[in-house]
């Protein structure tokens, strides 16, 4: 599978990836707001950070992100990496939601705060 990564320099060339890496990245785009090239670049950055840091236990980090290990078992640097990934995942998931439509479909009221900090209540429509 050939992949052309965005924001490349003139000397950069398309990169051949194993099919399973491309397929995994494509599957990950379903839960993130990234494109396939962006997802792969994200993984590359994470991998670079992990390899450059001798304090990071990659297996433990992966287990925490998968929900099979306790966050409290990680060191301070590893916890920071997990919090960063969790924040990115939450942002990506929120960007895919249409809460207005969900509340309307459920016949529920909801409230929100506008940019000026004012409370806005949206009544339920039955």
Give an overview of the whole structure.
By secondary structure, the chain is mostly helical. It has one domain (2-98). The protein has helices spanning 19-28, 36-52, 58-66, 76-96, 99-106, and strands spanning 2-3, 15-16, 110-113, 119-122. It has a two-stranded antiparallel ribbon. Helix 1 crosses helix 2 (36-52). The radius of gyration is 20 Å and the shape is extended. The mean pLDDT is 82.
- Biggest beta-sheet profile: 2 strands, antiparallel
Low-pLDDT windows of residues: none
**How many H/I helices?**
5
The strand count comes to 4
Order of helices and strands: EEHHHHHEE
Based on CA atoms alone, the radius of gyration comes out at 20 Å
Q: What value does the average pLDDT take?
A: 82
| Ends distance | 50 Å
Q: For the largest beta sheet, what order do the strands appear in spatially?
A: 1-2
Number of domains: 1
- Going by helix content, strand content and strand pairing, the class is mainly alpha
> Strand share of the residues?
5-15%
Q: How does the overall form come out from the CA principal axes?
A: extended
**Range of helix content:** 40-55%
